[in-house]
Amino acid sequence: MQTFSEYLESLIKQFGSQMALATAAGIEQASISRFRSDQIGLNKDAIDRLLMIGKAVILTEEEIRDFEDTLDHMAAMWRRERRKRKEGDQCRKTDQG
Q1: What is the pLDDT of residues 10-57, one digit of tens each?
Q2: For helices 4-15 and 18-25, angle between their N-to-C axes, nearest 10 degrees
Q3: Is the alpha carbon torsion for 61, 64, 69, 72 positive or negative?
Q4: Which CATH code for domain 4-53?
Q5: Residue 63 and residue 14: Cα distance in Å, rounded?
Q6: Which residue has the higher pLDDT, 59 or 1?
Q7: CB within 8 Å of 31: residues ≥ 6 apart
Q8: pLDDT surpasses 80 at 91
Q9: Alpha helix positions (H), the chain
Q10: Would you kindly state where each structural domain of the chain is located, as residue ranges?
């Protein structure tokens, strides 16, 4: 998992500079600088804009577990289907051979 500070650093890299990110987000560059140096926090609107710019999605641990469970279930279904197909292919080969 990524902290908000790590997320902000990745956005700065993506935009090439803190100034470019601040301009794109409509936030004062000084606010980002002070946030990064633990001098002030960012307001809710600034955080919302930064999340939207990076197309971030916030998920709870429960939502992540549910998603993982869904993927596990789908993978199990695919394995069963693949096994059935292989068994069917082997039966056809035996019938032909």
Answers
A1: 999 999 999 999 999 999 999 999 999 999 889 999 999 999 999 999
A2: 100
A3: negative
A4: 1.10.260
A5: 27
A6: 59
A7: 22, 40, 42, 46
A8: no
A9: 4-15, 18-25, 29-36, 44-53, 61-96
A10: 4-53, 59-97
CA distance to 10, 70, 73, 79, 95, per residue, from 51 (Å):
12, 26, 31, 37, 60
For residue 50, which of 38, 32, 64, 34 has the smallest C-alpha distance?
32
**How far apart are the C-alpha atoms of 31 and 95, rounded to whole Å?**
74
In the chain, what's the furthest Cα-to-Cα distance?
78
